[in-house]
Every structure is written in C-alpha cells, then in structure tokens.
Amino acid sequence: MRVSRRLAPFGATVFTQITRRAVETGAINLGQGFPNFDGPDFVKEAAIDAIRSGHGQYAPSAGIPQLGQAIAAKFSDFTGIAVTPLANVTVTSGCTEALAASFLGLLDPGDGVILIEPTYDSYPVGVALGGGVPSYVTLRPPTFDLTAAALEAAVTPNTRVIVVNTPHNPSGRVFSRGELETVADLCRRHDLVAISDEVYEHMVYEGEHLSLAALPGMWDRTVTLSSLGKTFSLTGWKIGWAVAPAHLTAGVRAAHQFLTFATATPLQHAAAQALAAPLSYYHELTRSYRNKRDLLVEGLDKVGFEVFVPEGTYFMLADHRRFGQEDDVSFVSRLIDEVGVAAIPPSAFYHDKKEGSDLVRFAFCKDEDTLREAVERLSKLRDLS
Ligand code: PMP
Ligand code: GLN
What we know:
Layout: H1 14-25, E1 28-29, H2 41-52, H3 65-79, H4 85-88, E2 89-92, H5 94-106, E3 112-117, H6 122-129, E4 133-138, H7 148-153, E5 159-165, H8 177-190, E6 193-197, E7 222-227, H9 228-231, E8 240-243, H10 246-259, H11 265-274, H12 279-303, E9 306-308, E10 315-319, H13 328-339, E11 341-342, E12 359-363, H14 368-378, H15 380-384
Parallel strand pairs: 1-11, 3-4, 3-5, 5-6, 6-7
Antiparallel strand pairs: 2-8, 7-8, 9-10, 10-12
Bound molecules: 4'-deoxy-4'-aminopyridoxal-5'-phosphate (PMP) and glutamine.
Glutamine binds next to loops.
C-alpha cells in the first residue's frame, strides 16, 4: 500500500467502516447520515428532463447561471446580503468539495486553523491537505457550548482561519447569536477568515439558524458553505456551493477548477429547480424531522441512554456508560453485533480519542417505522446491561 504522508494518518472514514459493517450484518444503519427515503419528485423529474433535453456537456467551472442565480437569491433572502453569482457563488461537488476547495485555495503552509470539535471528519483532512496546522476548541457534554475563553485559547500567532459548523454535526447544537458573536469578535480582532458549514441550515428545532456571514463585519471574511444533500434528501447527488466575497471566492475557485473543474450539469439544472421551492417545503421538512427527533429521543430515553437532545441536524449524541462498555468503539461493536443497530463512535470526531469515548451518535434521517424498529431492537440493551 502506498498512501501519501499527508493522508496516511486518516485511514478509511468512520462512515465507510460503519456502513460496511451494517451491510454485512443486516443491522439498521443509524450510523452514516443518509435518508432511507428518496428526495422530492419535482426535483427528480427536473433532473430527468435536464438529461433528456441534452445538458450532457461540461458546465461553466463556477456553475450554470440558473443555479448560481438560485443560490444567490436564497442566500440573499435568508441573510439579507445582496450577492451575485458571477462574483460570489461557486457550485461544487457537494459541501465536501467546497470544504476541500476552501482549504486548498485559502491556506498557505503553516497557517493555523481553529477547528471546533467534535469536528466533521473531513475538516482535519482538508487542513492537512492545505498544509495548515489545526488547533482545537473542544465542546463537551451536556451543553456543548462555545465559550470566548476556549476560542481565545486556540489562537496562535499563525492562526488565519476558523471553521464553524452550525447546526452542528454531531452534537446537534444550533449556535446562539451570543456564541456566533463571540466567533465574529475573535475573527475581527485576529483578522481571521471563517469557513461556515451550514449544510443543516433547514433542520432546526430549537432556536434559529444564523449565518455567520450576516453578523456585523463578517460578510467580508466569511466563506459560507451548504449543499442540496440534506435539505432535499439527495445525499448522493453531491451538489454543493460556496458563497463568499470576491477576494475569497478567488481562492475557492482557484482550487475548484483543478479538483473537479465543474459539477454534473443536469443535476445543476435540477438543483436550480429545487432551490425555487416555496418556503412551505422547508417548513414541512423541519416538521417531519422534528417528529423523527422526538420519536428517537423518547425511545433512547426509555432504553436508558442519557440523550443530549439536538436543537438541529439529523443526529443526536447519547451517553452509553450505563451499559457498561469500556469505550464508544466497543459499545458500537456490541450494538451492531448483538443488537442489530449501527451507530457512529464519536471518538472519530475528536483529536484526543478519550473525549468522545463515553458517547454514541445516532442518525434519525430514517422513516418512522425504521426508527421504531431500531428502538425495539435497542430495548435489548436493558437485558444485556
Ligand atoms: N459538512 C457536514 C457538517 C456534514 O455533516 C456533511 C455530511 N454529509 C458534509 C459537510 C458533506 O456534505 P455533502 O454530502 O454535500 O458533501
Ligand atoms: N455527513 C454524513 C454523516 O455525518 C456522512 C457523509 C459521509 O459519509 N462522508 O453521517
């Protein structure tokens, strides 16, 4: 095997590992976050129409104008900031590529990057690819709150970038205005660029989603990322985007043009239709996910977990210690093999693996029957403990 020194430390992603085991064992997969239901018909029909009408060649590198326009309009509606597709929007292959393009296009070797952990697994890899040096702010149960002191302690003389994810995977936090003000204050005082990953922007059950870019003085220093996957239950389409002021868009595009050059053309046409959905679409999405959240919170609670009720996203963390396993990895192994439910061991999201070892992450982007069946299987834990 030959893997570069930059990538060798990271191995196969926890999502790949757990989904493989779920498939092998027939466990209900509450691990990797993908819905077990399909996206809306009007979006699928739009993709079929786009393929039939011959949109089979390369799109412009930054995205087709119709999608750029739809992303710009949505961003402006939700943040109140006027943006144009030409100057400010880059369409990418999922938020994953937008993240990679941001790290590769904005970092110089040795630049410091603040990551808030538990951190989505691709952030530390993106920082490594960009030659950056991570420093960590650790959020801890039960509140997973973000404090000014912890942020300040992570700043080094080389810090140039901070990555924020709200609503936050895996804690389910929706950061408050006060917490985001603290981040904004840090950025302004230390002249940092913020990369704000907002892929769960429409899955908010408590509080409200705020875009970091909309805070005073932040538009000019923020790259806002999102994607179609979660909001339209089409994680396999891999349509994402970055919205940023022209000077930061330049960095994102410099990398994007050589990573993928452009993203699947017919799916971009369909994505433009998706983003034209009325507000009622988003309200219904939130309503349906709130029900799923409540169902799983109640079920896990009855089984005996200490559940940290998520304010947003389609994930929840719970404390597994009362079931007697040594750490999260052994707990999840037992869950898959003896209970028939797969989940994610959250130590994968911390640089110090001890931090996540008392926790387990469950995804609730599944139909309600599947969630009920999972709770039924999990109730076996009461006897096993
Ligand atoms: N950011 C976060 C926080 C995520 O949970 C995910 C999960 N898919 C992504 C980015 C990647 O998004 P995409 O599937 O659009 O690449
Ligand atoms: N975002 C998804 C999760 O957190 C996984 C995406 C992936 O498999 N890379 O579960």
